[in-house]
Design goal:
With 131 residues, the protein is α/β, with parallel strands linked by helices. The protein is built from 5 helices and 5 strands.
Length: 131
């Protein structure tokens, strides 16, 4: 049966996890990660939130908007706000939301490439980049 054949595999996997207590993260990425207990330095660091559905990302974005922060999310590249094709990185406040948005969509691969080309991170405009 499939359960008896997967049992040794499961035991091997669990044994491997016991031997490797540290999270498995690419070393190149690990060098740029900071513990959640450390407050980011806004002069030298940009906060990146990897939004996994149902992980609290919508709540986090709402909190940042309420704090009138500048976000890099899909709204920034929405054509109805007139900044989707700007040739330079800008932050703008659409309507009376209180928050500002950077004119790139960091939720899509083409938007991430555009953000890189326009210099999103070096610009220091975004308080939070959501991807």
């Amino acid at each position: 049966s499939s359960s008896s054949s997967s049992s040794p595999q499961l035991r091997r996997a669990l044994s491997w996890l016991d031997d490797h207590k540290r999270p498995i993260v690419n070393p190149a990425v690990r060098n740029h990660m900071k513990p959640l207990t450390r407050t980011p330095d806004p002069e030298n660091e940009t906060v990146l939130f990897w939004h996994i559905p149902k992980s609290g990302g919508t709540t986090l974005k709402s909190i940042y908007k309420c704090m009138k922060k500048t976000l890099s999310v899909r709204v920034g590249a929405d054509p109805r706000y007139g900044h989707a094709t700007d040739k330079e990185i800008v932050a703008f406040e659409p309507g009376r939301m209180g928050a500002s948005f950077v004119n790139v969509d960091t939720l899509t691969p083409p938007g991430i490439l555009r953000a890189q080309e326009l210099g999103l991170v070096p610009s220091g405009l975004a308080d939070l980049v959501v991807t």
